[in-house]
Amino acid sequence: MELAFELSLEHETLPRAEVFACLHALGISYAEKMFSKGILVVDTQLSHDALDTLSRRLGMTHCIYEVKGMSKPEEREILAVVKDADMGEQGHTFAVRVKVKSNFRTEEKKPLSLDGSLERKAGEIIKRKGYKVNLTNPSKTFVLLLTKQTCFFCSLLHSANKKQFEERKPRLRPFFSPGVIQPKIARALVNLSGIKKRELFLDPFCGTGGILIEAGLIGATLVGIDVQEKMVRGAEENLEAYGLSGDLIIGDASKIALQDNCVDAVVTDMPYGRSSLISGSGYFFAESRALFLEGLYQNALNEVHRVLKTRGKAVIVSNSSSLFSLSLAYNFRVLEKHKYRVHKSLSRYIAVLERE
Question: Alpha-carbon Rg of the chain, whole angstroms?
C-alpha cells in the first residue's frame, strides 16, 4: 500500500528523517515515492500492530493516510479519482474532509473552490458506492489532501494526539531548568537514533531528563549521566512523574562508567558552556570557555564511541557546526546533518553518527 505522512512544517528536514528512522527501527521495508510540501509518500506493507507502534513513536507527523489515488488539484480530475478509487468494504459510515498544505492556484483561470462544494461532490460519489454519511463520528474519514501540484485522495489511518507533547512541556514537570529541548524535538532525536524497545539507551549529559523521558516512553532501557547531583535527582523525579525509571548516575561524561560496546544508542544535547560544571575538569582554570568546550566534546565523543556497539547510532546536538568535523575525527560515520533555529541567538546543530 502507499502511505502518506502529513509532516509538521516546524522543520525542513527532521520530520522526514524521523519517519525513515522509525520505519528502519521497526524493520519495515519501504520505498519513497514522493516528497512535497510536508507530504511524504512511501510504498510499504505493514500490519495493523506495526502501524499502531509507528504512529505512537512519531513526534513530528500529524497524520498517516492510506493513499487511494492522486491527481492534479483540479475539481474534475479529483472527482474522477474518487470515482475510480477502491474504497474497500461497503457499509461503513464516512465523512470527507479537505486539507490544504499550501497556498495554491490551479492551472484553471480561477482557484479551486474550497467553499465546501468539493467535499459535498466527493461525498455524493462515495455515498453512491454504498457508504453512509456520518459527519460527527464516522468509521472512515476520507481526506482530500491538497498541495500546489497534487491532490491526494486518502483514507485517514492515524491522527496524532497533539496534546501529549504539550502536557510534557518542561515547565510542567516536577523539576525544571531553562534551556532544555522541547519534547517533540526530543522524541524526534530519540527516533533518529533507531533505538528499539528494551535496548540500552544512554544520555551522557542528561540534565533534567527530557530526552530520557521520550526514550522511556517508547520502551527503551535508560541510562542517564550528569555531573551535577541536583540534575540527576531532578531527572529521577521527572522520570517517576511519567511512570518511568532508569539508572541515573552522578558522573563525568568524559569518563563514562560503562563497559565497551554495551550501548545500543546515544542521544544527548551537549553543554554550551553557559552553566556547565564538569567535576575536576578545570573549567574555571581553562584559558577560555571555547577551549574548555572543545576538550569536553573531544573526550565525550571518544567515550561515546567506546561504549557504543558496532553500527550503533549517536545523535549529538550542539550549538556549533564544528560538531560535524569533530565527529569525523573520532571514527564516526556522519549519516545525517540537521540544523534548527531555537531563537535569535541560538541554533542547534544535530549530527546523526554511526560507529564503524
Answer: 23
